Structures are given as C-alpha cells and as structure tokens.
Amino acid sequence: MTKDRLIAFTDAVIAIVMTILVLGLKEPSDATWQALAVLLPNYFTYALSFFWIGTMWVNLHNTFQRVHLISHKTVWCSLVLLFFSSFFPYAVNFASGHFTAVVAQEFYGIIVILITLSNFLLYYLASKDNDDASIFGMRYKRIADFCLKIVGLSFGLIYPPAVMIGVLLAGILFIPPHDFWQRLLKESK
C-alpha cells in the first residue's frame, strides 16, 4: 500500500469519527438558557474530544510528511489506531451522558489510552520503516502525555471528571507544533 492511500484512508475515518461526535450531542429539553446549562458537561466532553482527535490528526499529518516508506506492520498498526478511534464517539456519548459516573469516565479514559498507545506504536514503526528517529521523536513529551492520562485515569476512580482533565492537560502538550518543542529544548540546553 502506498503512503498516500494510507493517509487518505486515515483522513476519511478520522473525519467520520469527528462528524459522529457532533451527532451524539443532545438537544436541550426546552429552548431556555437553563436547559442549555444542564448540557454543559455534554458540550465540554464534545469540545475536548473533538479537539483531542483533531490534534491527533494534525500531528499524524505533520509526521507523515517526513515518512517516505511504510511497512505492512505500519499499515496494520494504523488500522488498529483507527479501530480504537472508531470507538471514541461511543465512549464520548457514554461519558457525556454520565459525566460523574466512574465507569463511564474510566471507559472513556481506557479508549483514550488505547488510541494513544496505538498512536505511539504507529510513530515508532514509521520511524523504523524510514530509519529516522525524529519521526518518533519528542520522547519526553510522549511520556508526559501518557503519564497525565494515567494520572487522570487513576484519580478518575475518586473524582470521575479527572479522566477528562488528564486528557485536556495531555492534549495541551500537543497543540504547539513539534518544531516549537524542539526549539524550546535546544534553547534550554
């Protein structure tokens, strides 16, 4: 399979996932501000999830600009990433409908962790395919990302929304482009 075909397929699946997210939003019971306010957890969950998946897509796009070769393993890893991503709208709807429920938030967090691990493996395999360690790059940022999500998942057992707080904090790490973090690390040395 060519790189362009894999990118096109990935783009299509992620676009569908992002579209399904908005379809999961509930309408207010009445046309009042109070009815809208009741749904604030749903809107927060939607916005967080949309931008988290969007940030993942942007980073995949930026990374695959440096990729020239892809192996069969990379294709299958991408498929696993998309498989877990396809569960994301379900997890979002479950968590937003039961915002303070431990099981709903933990399920959301587990899906996020599975997507994250698949994503890390995809970057690792792409770096091996291309003999370019910079593709996997920013190891410390990836470790911090994973740790924030695990901490959120752990605290979610006591305070369920902590799962989403962990995802939010981890997502902030990936908003600035990869080059920004590289410059920052060079300046600090």
Automatic annotation (TrEMBL):
Membrane topology summary: Multi-pass membrane protein
GO cellular component annotations of the record: membrane
TM annotation in the entry: 7-25, 31-53, 74-95, 107-126, 146-175
GO molecular function annotation: potassium channel activity; proton channel activity
Domain of life: Bacteria
Family, per entry: Belongs to the TMEM175 family.
Methyltransferase found in the keyword field: no
Name under which the protein is recorded: Integral membrane protein
Compartments it resides in: Membrane
Organism: Lactococcus fujiensis JCM 16395
InterPro entries reported for this sequence: TMEM175-like
Reactions catalysed: K(+)(in) = K(+)(out)
Pfam families: TMEM175 (PF06736)
